[in-house]
Design a protein that fits this description.
With about 150 residues, this protein is of the alpha/beta class. Helix content is about 40%, strand content about 20%. Strands 1-4-5-3-2 form a 5-stranded mixed β-sheet.
């Protein structure tokens, strides 16, 4: 199910970013390229995170998102691993090594995608295989493995 929303172009592996802001910009790039979000969407995510860093949802994982009216036009997801984990301002969950960027045009369209994402994140073996993936093919295989459980 998650593979319906995540293709080769929306998986970014071992990215080197100087800080969390660059990581957000990079995570949004595939959504912008696919016209699922405007460049303003990345800026809205950054502003929200500066105001309250609640998007670091678990140890090492950020779910970057903003309100639909901030420039989201479609349902999309980017999964990005960082070559070097970065601090995102979360005392409990830093440093971050997986940045998930979500776009949705409304409050309902993304529910099935979030269910599939939750299943993937809760599957420790599949998540670790994804984090260790050296190729997009390996990463997609890890996502598929999470669905078979």
């Amino acid at each position: 199910m998650l593979q319906e929303y995540v293709g080769e172009g929306s998986i970014l592996l071992h990215q080197s970013c100087k800080d969390w802001e660059e990581a957000v910009t990079r995570g949004c790039a595939p959504l912008i390229k696919a016209r699922l979000a405007d460049p303003s969407y990345a800026e809205a995510i950054k502003a929200n995170h500066r105001a309250m860093p609640y998007m670091v949802i678990a140890p090492g994982i950020m779910l970057a998102h903003a309100r639909p009216e901030c420039g989201a036009h479609g349902v999309g997801l980017t999964l990005m691993t960082l070559a070097h984990p970065l601090p995102f301002g979360s005392e409990e969950n830093d440093p971050v090594s997986l940045v998930i960027t979500l776009a949705t045009p409304d409050d309902k369209s993304h529910v099935k995608m979030l269910e599939a994402l939750t299943d993937f994140l809760m599957n420790g073996a599949a998540r670790e295989k994804f984090l260790a993936a050296k190729t997009v093919h390996e990463a997609l295989a890890a996502l598929g493995e999470a669905e078979r459980v």
